[in-house]
Structure formats: structure tokens, C-alpha cells
Design a protein that fits this description.
155 residues; alpha+beta; Arc Repressor Mutant, subunit A; three-stranded antiparallel sheet; 6 helices
């Protein structure tokens, strides 16, 4: 939840709902991650919020392992290989919020992107990663005005 999108910030009850697990077991794991300095926390009102410690020496390694496990490395490689004019790829939706899903939602940024070529490439990607891929295409300027950094991350 915290390591894919470094902007994710959550509190215990929110995690309890998202993870569908008991508050006590989640609290224990959060404390372990905090003791290892993989998570940092802060209080706001009566809630204790957690987020990834991006300055931890292992943060990039943990994030890269998760990206590979989910298949984002393959998604990025195959899209960049096959789609001309593609500048950037962003993940939105459940994965951007740190929630595992069978659907990967992408925003593809570029000029004059060919939707037919994208669809052809996505068939190959879906077979490789075992997930359904949904996408929208945008140009850079319209993209920056529509989405907030906390709702997406770049691959």
C-alpha cells in the first residue's frame, strides 16, 4: 500500500477497511514497519497517519520488487517498445491507492498516440501479466491539470 505510491498516507481504521483485516493485526504490522524505519508516522487530531519512509535505504528496492511482481516493468517496457510518441505512463485507480486488483488503470501521455496499436500491445501485456489493462490517452498539458499526484504514480 505504501511502497508503490510514495504519496499514499493512511490511518489505522482506513487500512482496516481497505485490507479487510482486524485493527489489532494491522497495528502490529504497522509498528514493526515503523520500528524498521520503513514507515514514518505523524498525528493529526486523534488519528495517527502512516506513510512510506522514502529516505530509507531499502525503499527503492522494495518499490522495484513490487513493481516487478505486479508486472509494471513489463507493462512499461512493452508500451515504450511498441507505441511511438509515448512520453510517460502513470498508474491510477486501485493500484495508485495501494489496493491490489485484477485491473490496472493507466494514463498514457503522448502526442498522436495510436489507440489501435495500444490495444494490440495491451493484448500481449495482459497475457504476460495476467491482469486486465484499461487506459486513457492524454496530452501533457491536459493531464497535469486533471489529476493530483496522490492519485497516481509514474512507472
Amino acid at each position: 500500500m505504501f511502497f508503490l505510491n510514495k504519496e499514499n498516507i493512511s490511518y489505522l481504521r482506513e487500512l482496516e477497511h481497505v485490507l479487510n483485516d482486524s485493527a489489532n493485526s494491522i497495528r502490529i504490522e504497522l509498528l514493526k514497519l515503523e520500528e524498521l524505519h520503513l514507515l514514518i508516522s505523524f498525528k493529526l487530531g486523534n488519528r495517527k497517519f502512516y506513510q512510506a519512509n522514502t529516505s530509507h535505504v531499502f525503499f527503492p528496492d522494495i518499490r522495484n520488487l513490487l513493481l516487478k511482481d505486479i508486472g509494471f516493468d513489463s507493462i512499461k517496457y512493452l508500451l515504450q517498445r511498441d507505441i511511438s510518441g509515448l512520453y510517460e505512463i502513470y498508474v491510477i485507480g486501485n493500484y495508485a491507492r495501494g489496493i491490489t486488483s485484477n485491473i490496472v488503470e493507466l494514463v498514457l501521455i503522448g502526442q498522436e498516440l495510436d489507440n489501435n496499436q495500444i490495444n494490440t500491445t495491451l493484448v500481449e501485456i495482459e497475457l504476460e501479466v495476467g491482469k486486465k489493462i484499461q487506459f486513457i490517452t492524454m496530452q501533457n498539458l491536459e493531464f497535469k491539470s486533471l489529476l493530483k499526484p496522490s492519485n497516481m504514480f509514474k512507472i
